[in-house]
Amino acid sequence: MPTTLRAAPAVLTTSFRDAGCLPGLRAWIREHVTGDELRGDVELVCTELVTNAVEHARGPRSVVVVVQPGGARIEVTDGSPTTAPVPGRSRFGGEMRGRGLTLVAALSRWEVRRVGRRKTVTALLPA
């Protein structure tokens, strides 16, 4: 009888205060995500969600990245449950603002969950 070995998903979980965590997150993604297109999409979505949490929400903040054969899941949690992210809008003015969630929506299925004093934005990216 043939045996199928399954690799455990690669999982990164970390807390962060500011965008200074992004170089380390990107390095981990480059090491653990296979396929150029998926790797680029995961890196972009992760960067956008983390940056949004830093710019628009209070702490504590954390990110979870799960990479598995079917794609990847990114979860960014922050301490601002009432601040709802909206694609195409930013609370900061300027024509170069508000595009991040539009990109996230184009590259993934995403949702917002609120639990107590926290909110989690989850993005699912297909392989």
TrEMBL record:
Q: Does Kinase count among this protein's keywords? A: yes
Question: What is this protein called in UniProt?
Answer: Histidine kinase/HSP90-like ATPase domain-containing protein
Q: Is-annotated flag, keyword Kinase?
A: yes
- Organism (species): Pseudonocardia xishanensis
Supply the CDD domains for this chain. Answer: HATPase_RsbW-like
Task: Give the matching Gene3D superfamilies.
Answer: Histidine kinase-like ATPase, C-terminal domain
Domain Histidine kinase/HSP90-like ATPase: residue ranges: 25-122
Highest taxon of source: Bacteria
Which SUPFAM superfamilies does the entry link to?
Answer: ATPase domain of HSP90 chaperone/DNA topoisomerase II/histidine kinase
Alphabetically ordered keywords of this record: Kinase, Serine/threonine-protein kinase, Transferase
